[in-house]
Each structure stands twice: as structure tokens, then as C-alpha cells.
Request: fold
Amino acid sequence: MAVEQLESLALDCAKEEFGYRFGSHDDAKAKANKRSDLRRQIARIATVIGEKKRGAEAAAK
Reply:
């Protein structure tokens, strides 16, 4: 995936996580698990973006 696509995916996940944070408190445990999964996914995406950017910089040198 391209960096732009990954950034878009991370933004979508962040928006979804924000919605879970301020949603109703029905089934709070399931929402907490989903929020944790989304935060981890955002972190994974950010790691891949960083690796791709560092790889592109190293290739340019």
C-alpha cells in the first residue's frame, strides 16, 4: 500500500475509535475491546508508514 492510502486508513480508524469513545455506554466492555484493537491498528499503520518513509529516504541517499 502507498503511504497516502495508509494515512487515509489510519485517519478512518481514528475517526471510528473517536466514535466509540463518545458513543453510548451500552455493551461498554465490547466497545473497550474494539477501541483497544483500533488503537493497536493505528499504531501498526503508523509503524509501517514510518518504515516506508525511512526506506524511501535511505534509497534516495
